[in-house]
């Protein structure tokens, strides 16, 4: 996957929340971003990749990268 490179990277930590709250928070945050901005999402849970991939497919935003380290997941999503 490509490296996330932008001057407009925002961060959102949804690790403390259980489903469906993380996807709702990411969806709401993405709505206020400008095209080209990147959202770095810190999350947990194996279903998060599936949920965020589905969100990107629906909105047209691009998942640039995802990293798994133990239980922690990091996603970089570019606003389209």
Structure description:
The protein is an alpha+beta fold and 80 residues long. It has a single domain, classed as TusA-like domain (Translation Initiation Factor IF3). Helix content is 30%, strand content 34%. It is built from two helices and four strands. It has a four-stranded mixed β-sheet with strand order 1-2-4-3, with helices on one face. The longest helix has 13 residues, at 47-59. The two termini are 17 Å apart. The mean pLDDT is 91.
How would you sum up this structure in a few lines?
The protein has 80 residues and is of the alpha+beta class. It has helices at residues 21-31, 47-59; strands at 9-13, 38-44, 62-69, 72-78. Helix 1 (21-31) runs parallel beside helix 2.
The spatial strand order of the largest sheet comes to 1-2-4-3
Largest sheet: 4 strands, mixed
- N-to-C order of helices and strands: EHEHEE
| Form type | globular
CA radius of gyration is 11 Å
Kindly report how far apart the N and C termini lie.
17 Å
Which class best fits the helix and strand makeup? alpha+beta
CATH superfamily heading: TusA-like domain
Number of domains: 1
Count of distinct strands: 4
What is the correct CATH architecture?
Answer: 2-Layer Sandwich
- Summarize the amount of helix as a percent range: 25-40%
Tally of DSSP helical segments: 2
- Strand proportion: 25-35%
Average pLDDT, rounded to a whole number, is: 91
CATH class designation: Alpha Beta
Question: Which features characterize this protein?
Answer:
single chain, 80 residues, alpha+beta, Translation Initiation Factor IF3, 2 helices
